[in-house]
Amino acid sequence: MLAEQDPATPIHNIDLPIAGKQASLDSASSHAADIVIEVRAQFEDMKAEMRLEFKSFKEEMRSLRSELCAMKTDLAVVKADMISCENKVTELGDRTTDIENFLSGNPIVGNLEQTVKELKMALNTCEQESLLNDVEVTGLPEIKGENLLGLIPLLSTKIGVPFDDREIISIVRSGPNLSQENSASPLRPRKIVVRFNRRITRDKCIQRARQLSRGLTSVELGLEGPPARLYFNERLTRINRQLFAKAREQCRHHQWRYCWTKGGRIYLRKEEGSSVVHVLVEEDIAKNFT
């Protein structure tokens, strides 16, 4: 029977059997070899993938280089075109300056401008004279299928000037026929233009209509609907209408009391007893209100 060993006594020099050591080393060596093979395979795969990626990158860079070269060429063409355009703009600017200098210092041009201005005034005067037998009636309600000529005897009676339809050349609505179907609010009726065959009859009608103290309304003419005030005025050309509107605006702004038309001409007066101003052009308005 072996003697028991003291637990406190250390154990030294315990060797494993030689066969066990060799088996363990072989197993470790085989495992390491497998790892090396696997790592080498993975590395080869990575190299192949990197080659493909690098090849693709080179192709993309080559394509990008070609596109950049083409873009550079296009930019050069654009730059050349811009320089050409700038040169043309500069040339046009120089030509315009030369023309302006020529026109501003050339008395012929000034004479032509004055001639054109005088011709416009003469044409406007002739056009206004062709309207001296016309009366504009505003405010009369517009009714579909209306008989304007049938209002003539009643108008004659109400304003106190005897005339019949034989003294009327024409009586029509003036302006485009506006539809009220798609309008949210009632449209203003178009003006009525009455052309007389004698100017004296027209003048009497306007004078008597303006002298009526309470005016004339649509109800007095037997028209249905709410009463509408009627106004009788001379018919003016487009230029004179615009000039008259500007004159009235300036009179209101500067508190001038009178602005009227007579015989197609425009007149102003600051107050009763002051001198009358005849307005022919816009400069006449500016001259009196500055």
Automatic annotation (TrEMBL):
Name of the protein this chain belongs to: Zinc finger DNA binding protein
Keyword Coiled coil included in the entry's annotation: yes
Taxonomy of the source species: Eukaryota, Metazoa, Ecdysozoa, Arthropoda, Hexapoda
Record-linked InterPro entries: FP_C
Keywords (A to Z) from UniProt: Coiled coil
Domain FP protein C-terminal stretches: 238-287
Species for this entry: Operophtera brumata
Coiled-coil features, chain-numbered ranges: 40-67
